[in-house]
Amino acid sequence: ITNHAGISDAHHTPAVPIWELIGDVLISTPVASIEFSSIPSGYAAFLVIWNDIFNAYVNVIDFTMHFNGDSGANYDYSIQPFNAISDTIHAATSLLIGITGDSSEGIHSFGQIHIQNCVDAEKVYNGRELRIEESGSIPHDVKGSHLEGKWRNNSDEINTITFSQEGQNFTAGSRIILLGIKT
After folding, report:
1. What is the pTM of this model?
2. φ/ψ bin of 68: left (φ > 0), alpha (ψ from -120 to 50), beta (otherwise)
3. How many angstroms separate the CA atoms of 2 and 6, rounded?
């Protein structure tokens, strides 16, 4: 095990777990979804980092994820815009992790979330999302939200994570990084 500087952790007993790169997707041509599949078992947690630039779409749209191909009403989430009241949704078919808009103006969403992956518990996530968004007379207004939610599955490990956005494509330059940590 090595840390980011390449220094061995061999002096730790036991070895200190570190984040491992599971996948890094940088889009070169538009795609409808981004999927990390065949994720090996044994990861106790995941860290998702994204920078998304979307197609030209005049309204803001939802950036979502779901696990293991489950698109049933098995998700609950809450999004709290900075300086506002939270909005909680139960029995959703995916988890909201961001909001974004018009790429022709350079509008994009970026953020990170942490996902607990305990095999015998619901899969809980939390994080934050920031975005640049047109807002009336303020071009490129920076906004953001606190995010939290869960997948109501307490029997399976996550082995697939799929990201999508309300029928709009991820455009060239969109990037999602998935890290995992084993304990």
Report:
1. 0.83
2. left
3. 5
